[in-house]
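Let us practice reading a record.
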Amino acid sequence: MELFQVPKISKKRITFIKLYVPYLPRDCCISETDSASRLGYGCLGIKFIWASRLIGRFGDLKKRTLPGETAMNKILIGAIGAVALGLSAPASAADMAARPYTKAPPPMVATIYDWSGFYIGINGGWGSSRNCWDFVTPVTGTLIDDGCHNATGGTVGGQVGYRWQSANWVFGVEGQGNWADFSGRNISPTAPDQQNRTRVDAFGLITGQVGYAWNNVLVYVKGGGAVVDDRYDLIVAPGFVGAGTTFGSANGTRWGGTVGAGVEFGFAPNWSVGFEYDHIFLGTRNVDFTLGGAFVQTERVSQDVDLALVRLNYRWGGPAIARY
């Protein structure tokens, strides 16, 4: 542009420019908007150029100025000052770079795990049934100790239930059914030819739950009713004639109570995995043994069951609540 075609400046002009540079624009906005910035002129250089062009227009004042300031000198000073003041305001605005647009960060969202809803799942683990037998004499009903044993083994099953959550408290009801393969035996201390065997083939639990949740971690206790499917056998003990022969059997469905506790972790919006311990109280009952429909003898059997289970549940309903 013509503005930046720098004229030849004499030493006298340079002296004059130095005198009047302070009157020129304070903010060199033109260096930001015109080609001066691309040519590498600094702020002071722009002022010199403007002053030089003004002097070029009006002539070399040094040659025209007598000792003492003349009217022309005053006019030129006023003109330079007017240019400086006229360009100073827009220079400040143009010199300021536009503020970059910054997208506001998204709001912080805390996800709260919600345990409410229906769920269904599977479980598996280990169990042990503690069984103590006493022979009941036919006439007097006197009890004769036949010893105790543990019937142990694996179990697998499923559960279905419903939970609802209020603040951190979680309440629920659940039904559970399991196939089991618990088996154990002992030789009677009072009848050495008799071996007692107990098998647990299945059990079921109907319970209520009360728990406390820390977001996706739930700790709970449970209690309710239980039912166990048992099978009992009298077997000829090893070392006797007919060893291993069954000479009496009985089947029984026993009802009792259960208590338990567990912890469950929600690892996905609708999935959770847990660990649970349950104890089943079945008390004591008389069991009549038969062989081919014929009565053999009566045993009084006391029984308790302990369970350790791993559970996997799928829940449908509200998986999570967002809190801002």
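A brief commentary: Residues 26-41, 58-68, 82-94, 319-324 have pLDDT under 50 and may be disordered.
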